[in-house]
Amino acid sequence: MNAQGGVFGPSFKVTSAAHLKQDIEPVTATVASAIIGALRPVTYKWQSDPSKLNYGFTVDDVQRAVPTVVDEALDVKHYDIVQIVALLVSEVQSLRASINQIVANRGRI
Prior knowledge:
single chain, alpha+beta, two-stranded antiparallel ribbon, 3 helices, 19% strand
């Protein structure tokens, strides 16, 4: 499906049942941190609507950081934001564990 101007609705659902997958492994903190660190969040305006400020990534930056989430259709590159979300969650979990360790050690100083 090609939806110029966006796809929206009350929810966005992704088929993600474990029985449909194979070789399931956790994302390591090292991998997530390297990829998230390589992404460059930007502000931008679409040429078709220069009055609205947007936040996101350019597909070229995403492709440099994690090429496996980029594909191309109709001569336009796209990236799978759901996979970026998984990396972000892994990074947040790692940071949370680090913060908890720092807080726990603070009482021992």
